[in-house]
Design a protein that fits this description.
Layout: H1 3-25, H2 43-54, E1 62-66, E2 70-74, E3 77-87, E4 99-106, E5 109-114, H3 124-127, E6 134-135, H4 137-140
Antiparallel strand pairs: 1-3, 1-6, 2-3, 3-4, 4-5
Length: about 140
């Protein structure tokens, strides 16, 4: 590289770094403008995949319902979450009773479930209070 070409490359690199620093300084720290809270367009498919792993026996689920994703405070951060209500099998003949989970999404994809045992704060019951549920027949038809 000639001296002139090297100087131009150095100037270009310096300008690129300066512009990168400027754009980084514009970030306000708000989760919404960084893509972290992209709307989970495939939330049902993501939940189905996660439930297949989450449950010991994902077959024969009854009374399945899901809410559309909404932005809520989860662990001090704003995240999209969808609430899932269902009655899983306890064993081959009995059911465990209605359970409720909050599916938390990050960058538009499933991240984790928030479950709650009765009496605990900041769990699914609190996060899903007032959720509007719609039938979720896909969850009731999960294959083994």
């Amino acid at each position: 590289m000639t001296g002139t070409a090297a100087r131009h490359a150095a100037l270009f690199l310096g300008a690129a770094m300066l512009l990168g620093a400027c754009s980084h300084g514009l970030h306000t720290g708000d989760d919404d403008d960084s893509g972290i809270n992209a709307y989970p367009t495939n939330y049902k498919t993501d939940i189905l995949g996660a439930m297949h792993v989450y449950l010991n026996d994902p077959t024969g689920i009854r009374d399945a319902a899901v809410s559309p994703p909404l932005l809520k405070q989860v662990g001090g951060q704003t995240r999209y979450l969808a609430c899932v209500r269902f009655n899983p099998k306890k064993n081959s003949t009995d059911y465990a009773g209605i359970r409720e989970l909050a599916a938390v999404f990050l960058v538009g994809r499933f991240d984790h479930f928030v479950d709650q045992q009765k009496g605990q704060a900041n769990g699914a019951q609190e996060l899903c209070a007032g959720a509007t549920y719609a039938p979720f027949p896909e969850l009731q038809n999960l294959p083994p």
